[in-house]
Amino acid sequence: MPYIIYDLEFTVSRNARYSSEIIDIGAVKVTEGADGLYVSDTFHTYVRPSNKSVLSTDTIQFTGITQKDIDAAPLFPEALQNFIAWMGNDVYYMCSWGPDDRSKLISHCRTHQLDVAWITNHNDLQQQWSRTVRKEGKFRQLGLTQALELCGIEFDGTQHRALDDAINTAKVFMHQFDRFSLETNCAADDEGIASKVVYSSSTDDDVKESPFGNLAHLFKTNE
């Protein structure tokens, strides 16, 4: 079962009339082999915004993405189709650093009237890792750079670029793999339903189950 570690970048807008849109998708496919976890493939695409195709100065300064990058990019439905095709037909886990990426994917799919059933087994690595290292005192979310520092890993690439952020998130994921407990879920189901833990890389007896054991009911299509 592959692990899809992905990151999104959004437009930055001070105009309340326009909500932020996805302009950059980067992802890493982490696979478990005989010698452990390794990066087996990467994916990247820019995305041309539907509502406001001209990037704001704030967006360009924050992400480093240029108007030329965006002008040559596909719109979200085509970019998403390419992303899903790259992920493949095998059951997978999706992992991001923080909850915003999942929420933005769902909102974009609804805006474009696209199915969300492909958003499955989604896990917020930031929340899990932050709670792991902040067991004492007031809980505070850790940034990706902080997480890398705690792992003794230097950030490689440029921050706020989707593929670079995905690659660095994957480094944390592989370095601390035994401390993550991954859940199964499906965005097509009620988002309020709590996900059931069916796989963990930890050694707790109560979560040592097959990653495939309880997946079947999660992939029902709504009729």
Automatic annotation (TrEMBL):
One of its GO terms (molecular function) is nucleic acid binding. The keyword Nuclease applies. It comes from the Bacteria. Signal peptide: none annotated. Residues 2-182 form the Exonuclease domain. Keywords: Exonuclease, Hydrolase, Nuclease. Pfam families: RNase_T. The keyword Cell cycle does not apply. SUPFAM superfamilies: Ribonuclease H-like (SSF53098). This is Exonuclease domain-containing protein. The lineage of its organism: Bacteria, Bacillati, Bacillota, Bacilli, Bacillales.
